[in-house]
Amino acid sequence: MHILNLLVFCDLVETSSFSLAAERNGITQSAVSQQIKSLEERFGVTFFERGKKNFSITPEGQVFFQSAGRMLEVYRSIEAELKAVRNEVGGRLRLSTVYSLGLHELPPIIKNYRQRFPQVEVVPQYRRAAEIYQEVADDRTDLGLVAFPKPRRGLIVEIFAEDKMVLICHGAHAFAARGRVALRELQHQSFISFEPDVPTRRAIDHLLTEHNVEVRQTMEFDNIETVKRAVEVESGIALVPFNSVRDEVRSGQLTAVEIADAELWRPMGLVLRRGRTVTPALREFIALLREFGGKKEPLHSQPLESED
Fold first, then answer.
1. Which has more confidence, 16 or 273?
2. Residue 300: what pLDDT?
3. Which residue stretches of the chain are H helix?
4. What is the mean pLDDT of residues 54-83?
5. Contacts of 280 (CB under 8 A, 6+ apart)
6. Which of 182, 189, 220, 296 is deepest in the core (most CB within 10 A)?
7. What confidence score (pLDDT) does residue 75 get?
């Protein structure tokens, strides 16, 4: 049994797709099927229920997945420690990021990083915040990037940058010509929101509640791009990070309006599993994130982390 077999197996479980598992490992779908069949024959069990409309992991497959994950974690730690000894900036860097950071802040950072370290394969994946914390904890990603980071047991969380939240509206909205509005003027306005479990939504709700402002929640979405599109078609107003709408404001698709009597900043955080080996590739990427935020050191005297 080879490490590659375990990696292919875990990728198949995570993606539920033979084609994606094949793509991740640079092999054919047929090779994925053969490797899974070989593992099943070796252990005398069936790992997956296969059907035309159904693909699911069996209880035996779940047990094997957990054990395979632990073995891969040991293997990757060996590889990471060897690279660290040689101070070699190379290999594969897995990033899990929320959509807003991944679509706006991250692209220029990754471009800069690839120019500096072309030998590193950077693999970004877009997730919701709760999934990112879990992926970091399970060592299924090297680094998590979230907004409004919160401490989690077993994880180290560091704020590396902040972005000011602004009100956005369509050019025909009454606020568009104002430039600045008071927060109380949002009272009973049609409001486009993030879904309740999105950290940015919780921060916005807290701000509005703190100032006794009630808006009419007309739509809720799980990502910044859909929120922007809804505002563009005059469905309401929204509070969003300025970096996420910079292009639309420049082109005139949206108008950004400042809140005159209140400020809300969106902190951006990196998430690491405590105790993991920080490879040179990961170390350099974290340094670039801090550089993006204008700091050579964390914004706090120590990284934010939960106590055991």
1. 273
2. 40
3. 3-15, 18-25, 29-43, 59-86, 99-100, 106-116, 129-137, 199-210, 224-232, 246-251, 280-292
4. 79
5. 83, 84, 87, 88, 89, 90
6. 189
7. 75
Exposed/middle/buried for residue 209 (C-beta within 10 Å: 0-12, 13-18, 19+): exposed
CATH of 161-266, one of 1.10.150.530, 3.30.450.20, 3.40.30.10, 3.40.190.290: 3.40.190.290
What is the rounded average pLDDT of the residues 95-103? 93
3-class DSSP state of 182: coil
Give me the residue spans of the domains in the chain: 1-86, 161-266
* Side-chain half-sphere exposure of 151, counting CA atoms within 13 A: 8
DSSP state of 237: B
As a whole number of Å, the end-to-end CA separation of the chain is 37
For Cα atoms 294, 122, 18, give the angle at the middle one, nearest 5 degrees.
145
Mean pLDDT of all residues in the chain?
Answer: 87
The Cα 299–Cα 303 span in angstroms is 8
The span from the CA of 258 to the CA of 183, in Å, is: 10
pLDDT for 295: 61
Fold observed for domain 1-86: Arc Repressor Mutant, subunit A (1.10.10)
Q: Which two tokens stand for residue 184?
A: 């109380």
Q: Are 247 and 254 in contact (CB under 8 A)?
A: no
Spatial contact of 108 and 230, defined as CB atoms under 8 Å apart: no
Q: Do the first three CATH levels of 1-86 and 161-266 match, i.e. the same topology?
A: no
